[in-house]
Design goal:
The protein is built from one helix and eleven strands; from the N terminus they run E-E-E-E-E-E-H-E-E-E-E-E. It is mainly beta and 235 residues long. It has one domain.
Length: 235
């Protein structure tokens, strides 16, 4: 193993690197500990496969019609196109987070970002976990599969009090240490497709009682996160 400065093919001059005995190069200055994330929208009765990484930021949310914002998605390009040129990522955790349960506003047929929303209840979370099967694929190879509970979110608001009617369900405790850690990280490189295909095995039953006592909530958003070390090109 050798330390040095850039000058190798694909490494900008001045970049601090470590060259492994097999010739691979690890860049330090370009690496950040961060996440890539995307969202999907399920509705009562849905049976279609949705992939939170199938589109990039500012496009329509998979399963719905609203335009996503930075809260929903931070992908520069869709997962089918892979990471940007000169990017790489060592994925050491994949997490699924229940974002919200919601309903449409007025005569609308699809919810908007500012539509009435509540935290996901236990009944809604139970139905989604029981029925939705996921597969994570990279470069057309399957790496992980299972149910929502197999990829804990490790995030979420936490409520403690005496209002027993309030439910705020997370996919695992809101603790950074509870995320599913992969024993062997998935090493993703530029322009190789990745996807998280989430497929209900039977029709979903989303009809959550709203905290305001009005119309039930028949939609649910889920956010998926790839957590790891991201190497970005240095300009």
């Amino acid at each position: 193993m050798a330390f040095g400065q850039g000058g190798l093919v694909g490494v900008p001059p001045g970049t601090t690197v470590v060259q492994l005995p097999d010739g691979r190069v690890i860049q330090f200055i370009d690496s950040i500990d961060d996440r890539l994330y995307g969202s999907i929208q399920y509705a009562n009765g849905d049976v279609n496969m949705l992939d939170p990484f199938s589109v990039s930021m500012s496009q329509q949310i998979p399963g719905g019609t609203r335009q996503m914002n930075n809260v929903d998605n931070n992908l520069i390009r869709s997962g089918s196109q892979g990471l940007s040129q000169a990017w790489a990522m060592s994925v050491y955790s994949i997490q699924l987070e229940f974002t919200r349960a919601m309903r449409v506003t007025g005569s609308a047929t699809e919810p908007a970002f500012d539509s009435y929303s509540d935290p996901v209840s236990f009944v809604t979370a139970f139905d989604l976990n029981r029925k939705v099967f996921f597969e994570f694929k990279y470069n057309n190879k399957q790496y992980l599969q299972g149910q929502i509970q197999d990829l804990p979110g490790a995030a979420g608001l936490h409520f403690q009090g005496t209002q027993t009617a309030i439910e705020n369900v997370h996919n695992g405790p809101p603790d950074v240490r509870t995320g599913r850690a992969l024993v062997i990280p998935v090493i993703m490189t530029e322009q190789k497709a990745f996807s998280l295909q989430m497929t209900p095995q039977v029709a979903l039953a989303i009809a959550q009682t709203a905290a305001d006592g009005a119309t039930a909530l028949s939609f649910c958003d889920i956010r998926a996160k790839l957590v790891g070390l991201i190497d970005r090109n240095v300009n």
